[in-house]
Amino acid sequence: MDLFDILGPVMVGPSSSHTAGAARIGLITRLLLGAEPAQARIGLFGSFQKTYKGHGTDKALIGGLLGMAVDDERLRDSLRIAGERGLQYSFYNAEARDAHPNTVIMDVDGVDGRHICVKAASVGGGEIVVEAINGLEAGFTGHENTLVVTQKDAKGMIAQISSILSANALNIATMKVFRRSVGGEAMVIIELDGNAEPGLLECLEKMPGIYHVAYVAGKTEGY
Amino acid sequence: MRTFADFLRDAAKYGTLGAAALHWQAKQDGFSEDEHIARMRSRLQVMRDSAKAGLSPNLRSVSGMVGGQAALMNAPEQLGRFGLLGKAGAYALSIAEYNACMGKIVAAPTAGSCGILPGALLAAQEQDGFSDDELIMALFAAAGVGRIIALQATVSGAEGGCQAECGAAAAMAASALVQLYGGTPEMASHACAFALMNMLGLVCDPVQGLVEVPCVYRNVGGVSQALSAAQMALSGIASPIPSDEMILAMKQVGDMLPACLRETGEGGCAACRSVCGK
Q: How far is B209 from chain A (nearest CA, A)?
């Protein structure tokens, strides 16, 4: 914990968990989708469900989806801006027995037809955890620069990905791998020490067997 | 630097709590002290902008319960009557209301308690002409105090009640004021202890679960506690209980609070018939 965690984040109020954390979840979902969102179906759990209007959680989630950061003053008007940018959205009450009280599940379609389902929790002080992506366990905080690669579960894939990273002088801080089935879709989540350049992401995306590459830059301004 | 005792040892080496905190931060992450000062200067600017914006009489929160009331407190008649306390209270309310109205603020240490520290410092600057550089070093002192409270106890209302959020903010503001007015680091430590002592036991009881009632008014209360704690310390009054012990006492009280008084919106003010919506 550093001094700017105490005097920060710089954020649009009123609540670090219900507003700033929600905006961050929206923004990360946009980055994971990797496209302009066209449609979003958003399920709210627990405390999010009960107090979202008064905390502007809805505006924060939509604002984040539209690319706004936690300190972006347009968050206040994001529902109107969503209309202007052609983002259709709906909210519903979600239920789960063991979910963190500030949990949201977002099904988002991009203008390119890609679909993503992100389940995330706002765990306090603007901190968040992305719990699942498309039903696969994720478990990252977005604190560090995070690379999320969806690929075919095949021999040597992970070795190839890590060799590309090392060729770009990027050190892997942590790495998690999940798969839906043997030989099916797999996901690797890599936290990096350095910053991944756009060229590297393109290079990864072109690799045979890789379906999608998303990059979530770690906490920067506002924090 | 995990305790106030550590903090005082470093302050003896670097001159002030603020200088010690800044040095510590620069050692942590490799950015230079100048870069951290620039970062803090931009936070000070956000604080100042939010204090101004929150004075608009037309602001309303989403629920409509708060907003526009800081303008009333900021009336010349009230400021003439209540002096530094009046100005600090008006700014604390202004920033807290701006937060409730989806304005841009600096969490200090949380969004719910964001008015206390800037309210105290901006009012002191207006009255006594402190420079921005002096305010920035006072903000470093405050951040150092807040970090120790967060490490030893908590600054989350859901964990420790309002004594942890507004209490920490008041302790941070009290220490920062002592540094600003030329008191010693030991005096700043006493101010921290007094603020925590006088906020001890305060529960977190947001009406309808929103950061509005009583939160925005607790920011006004918190800034008055900060000013009084600073006044006691600057007068040479020593807290019989050192700040490190007060921080642990605050944690113990927080641990004893039932869940209904820790941000669940069930007890205290939240249960009052006129506002609970039931």
A: 7
